[in-house]
Amino acid sequence: MIPSFAETMEQPNRGPRMSYEIFISYAHPDKSIADAVCATLEQQGIRCWIAPRDIEPGADWGLSIIEAIKSCRAIVLVFSAAANSSPQILREVERAIHLGIPVIPVRIEDVLPAGALEYHLGTVHWLDAMTPPLEAHLHRLSEALLIILNREGKAPVPPSMPVPSEAGSGSPRTVPPPPPEAAPLALEREPRSPAQLSTASASWHLSTPARLFVVLALLAAIVAGAALAYQKWFKVIDPVLVRTLTGHAAWVNSVAFTPDGKELASASNDNSVKLWDVATGQQIRTLAGHDAIVCCVAVSPDGRYLASADIEGAIKVWDLGTGQEATQLLGVITGQNKGVDALAFSPDSRRLASGNDDQTVRVWDVVDGEPKQTIATGQPGYIGAVAYSPDGRWIVSGSGASSVKVWDAATAQEVHALPAAGDVHSVAFSPGGHLLAVGSYGETVELWDIATWQKIRTLSGNTSYVHSVAFSPDGRWLISGAHDNAVQVWKVSTGRLIKTLTDHQGIVFSVAFSPDGRYFASGSGDNTIKLWSTTGGNK
Questions:
Q1: How does residue 334 score in pLDDT terms, banded at 50, 70 and 90?
Q2: Which pairing describes strands 519-524 and 315-319: parallel, antiparallel, or unpaired?
Q3: What percentage of the chain carries pLDDT values higher than 90?
């Protein structure tokens, strides 16, 4: 368990000469997490400096910060949207970089460094701590720091220990730990030669840059795992075409990966849905049952279901394991405007939303097929895009009349209306749900901040309509497919166009990232699906 931060307050009075090992940098809204970081590290004997606890009464705040950074051997930065916009955080990071002190960001929100912070932290390895439980991430951090501090030959000392109070006094008092005893000489099995001693001495007395490199390398090795593998892969995205999937007899309108990343689903104008093996590019099966052009496919987050819909209003829910229809949806759309252009599963896989030609968004229960909501959007034209936010709180609909609306998923009430640069054919939330991307016939991708519902960036560089957008799993990159046969790769934090891929010979109707971020797929009017490696062909 994470110790109470109140326990860390019961420290002996720390004079100005007290040495610290870790400086904890955080923005005020993240104080509770910073407290948890401090408590966890100090429980492991790692001495931390954290404001305001360690600022002496009457001391100058700014001078105390500077002196504390100088006395520490590393900075742990609790990184969030609040930290990203904090001038104080920027000053602390700049001071640490200037002094050659390593900065270890612990990312608690799906947000990337911007402005000067992007410059300072662009090459620094991260510890992602966005998924619960926080305790597990903090223990990984403490283990990494213990190894780093020991590697420098300065092992942490045990934390202060409570002792019984004297007679007549109140609460227990604390005393500093005893000074470490000199380590006994190790008994070597064989005496080392002068050459060996010289090598050992040279390897120990590293220069400051070399020592910093060793510290960062060790940190990367310990806290890497899958999360930091993402960071390594996506530091510089380098898309390379690895295979082209052929088998559809007409346009490929939609593609979607399964949650395990092993299979890819596609929908086509040839009235079929196909499943493909991502590793081999081989077709696994064809799901036949539609009698009209299949406009869209979606895969449930739990990997159990695949949904497909066609221009005649038929929506089918398939069991991915068997390839058989799993649920018969009731109350499907009939009448003149009965086509379905978009599908999205809720994050819990229990609901399926459709965007329809009759200007509605309809929501079904996936298990029993019962209709749960019909949202009359009031948006002119067809509903060409629909998406759930990652927390399931919102449903977003985009229409063929330059309109985006945000709905409360529980009540189906309109929450926000957002203007768009043109007819909207694609909307996508970033993995942490902080950004909304809107791809439109205005030849742009617009990024909206969900916290304020303000547009923060416009990605310009497409030469034609944008049909599809998708975020990478770590939120660093965005891909778009357009009417000009191109796939474009963008850096989210800056809006910079990284690369334009022109291998398709037809309109790119759909793009999707694999869940592990190693691949993305594009479906086109040239009847093919192209599979791209994000790591320069290193599979």
A1: low
A2: unpaired
A3: 53
Distance CA 312, CA 20 (A): 68
Per-residue model confidence as pLDDT tens digits over 469-500: 999 998 999 999 999 999 999 999 889 999 99
Phi, psi (rounded to 5 degrees) for 419: -75, 155
Say what the pLDDT of residue 402 is. Answer: 84
Residues recorded for the chain: 539
74-79 sheet: strands from edge to edge: 48-49, 22-25, 74-79, 103-107, 127-128
Instruction: Pick one of 3.40.50.280, 2.40.50.140, 2.130.10.10, 2.40.10.10 as the CATH number of 240-533.
Output: 2.130.10.10
DSSP 215: H
Domain with CATH 2.130.10.10 in the chain: 240-533
Cα separation, 417 vs 353, in Å, equals 19
Distance CA(145)–CA(375), nearest Å, equals: 52
Left, alpha or beta for 47 (phi > 0: left; psi -120 to 50: alpha)? Answer: beta
**pTM attached to this predicted model:** 0.61
Using CA atoms, how far residue 8 sits from 48, 71, 100, 217, in Å, is 10, 19, 28, 30
C-beta separation of 78 from 106 below 8 A: yes
- Calculate the alpha carbon distances from 178 to 160, 161, 175, 214, 501 in Å: 9, 10, 9, 30, 64
Radius of gyration of the chain (CA): 28
Matching CATH number, 18-165+206-234, of 3.40.50.10140, 2.60.40.1610, 3.40.50.300, 2.60.40.10: 3.40.50.10140
Confidence of residue 219 (pLDDT cuts 50, 70, 90): low
Give 4-19 pLDDT, tens digit per residue.
Answer: 444 444 443 444 445 7
Residue extent(s) of CATH 3.40.50.10140 domains in the chain: 18-165+206-234
Q: For residue 102, is the peptide bond before it cis, meaning its omega torsion is within 30 degrees of 0? A: no
Only one residue has tokens 């599963």, namely 345
Q: Find, among 295, 288, 332, the residue nearest to 426 by Cα.
A: 295
Question: How far is the CA of 92 from the CAs of 34, 74, 79, 121, in angstroms?
Answer: 15, 12, 13, 12
pLDDT at residue number 179: 42
Q: Where are the alpha helices (DSSP H) in 73-167?
A: 81-84, 87-99, 116-121, 134-151
**b/e burial code for range 524-533 (CB count within 10 A of at least 16 → b):** bbbbbbbbbb
| 424: Cα separation from own chain's centroid | 25
Q: How far is CA 225 from CA 75, 153, 379, 473, 513, in A?
A: 21, 26, 45, 15, 20
Q: At what angle do helices 87-99 and 61-71 cross, to 10 degrees?
A: 40
Query: How far out from the chain centre does Cα 483 lie?
Result: 28
